Amino acid sequence: MFGRFKKSKSDKSASSQPQLSHALAEIKLPYCTSTIPEDWVTINGQEAVLTVPFAANEQILEPLRQHPELGKLNWVLRLNIAKLPNSQPELPMTFGNVIVVSSGKGGVGKSSVSVQLALALQQLGANVGMLDADVYGPSLPTMLGGQEEKLEINAQQKMIPHQRHGIWVSSLGYLTDTKDAAIWRGPMASAALQQLFRDTKWPRLDYLIVDMPPGTGDIQLTFAQKLPITGAVIVTTPQTVALADAEKGITMFRKVGVPITGLIENMSYYQCSQCGHRDAIFGTEGGAKVAHREQVPLLGQWPLDARIRSGLDDGKPLLAEHPEHQLSLMMKESASKLAAELYYQAQTK
């Protein structure tokens, strides 16, 4: 295993292999649940490469750069995102990891969270797609823009997803008129969703984010039982009525064998853009308490902020337009936690 640590003969400043091994064992990377495996690291002379199997940015290198010995090396980050086990291992899947974003009830900002997580993962270096599974009210064309551009169908009768802000998107909203209503019974809607998933010609993806419809009905069960899911993210507000439904969603996914990767407490508080005062409109720490009670990782507590809303209304998400904004950095931190949790949960399983 130490063969991964390659040293130049002229390099006298780098530690010996046993010292390197010991130093790596002392370090825990952000959002990681264990120390650094030796086969993640390659050292050649003064250049050191950390290869991680999930989406991450340069911040993950900080503990290595601050170490008294390892900090003498020039650290470089590389991604080799792993294709993890899913809920339907017998089904062929030509791309990476499917993450469903779900909520027990509507109105908690699930689609907004889905879009921001997808954009954040893309900015962390992953190839990302989005599937709009809310066939009754597809909102991704509004939030990502290009609503007037219809999906193309190739010679093999496959839909070609749009590329919006660096991510690939397939939605019923790109196939129908904006004012059309999907007046379907449950089985018909479930069949439409499966077709949208399977008949989209996705490129090679590391992550596919699925914006699920709210609730725990036919569509959710169909997706969970018939399509491959790597993990689920639950979105809730701190409000009591939303928390009860969020717990129902957690229970449903666990019953069908889908791991809960994490929970995001959306609209956690309102912060005045003028004076900075915070007001907990929907209550305090409700999502955090559910996450603790259900033993689910808390991926983030996102504020109710007009800048997030206005960007999505205009098809220009804040993350895409201002990736270094403090709110964008907060959402990228949640995406970093999500990617790491997804990987480590699969290793534990």
From TrEMBL:
Protein's UniProt name: Iron-sulfur cluster carrier protein
InterPro entries in the record: Mrp-like_CS, Mrp/NBP35_ATP-bd, NUBPL-like, P-loop_NTPase, YlxH/NBP35
One GO-annotated biological process of the protein: iron-sulfur cluster assembly
A Pfam family recorded for this sequence: ParA
Organism in which the protein naturally occurs: Pseudidiomarina andamanensis
Assigned keywords, A-Z: ATP-binding, Hydrolase, Iron, Iron-sulfur, Metal-binding, Nucleotide-binding
Function: Binds and transfers iron-sulfur (Fe-S) clusters to target apoproteins. Can hydrolyze ATP.
PANTHER family to which the protein is assigned, alphabetical: IRON-SULFUR PROTEIN NUBPL
SUPFAM superfamilies tied to this protein: P-loop containing nucleoside triphosphate hydrolases (SSF52540)
Positions contributing to ATP binding: G104, K105, G106, G107, V108, G109, K110, S111
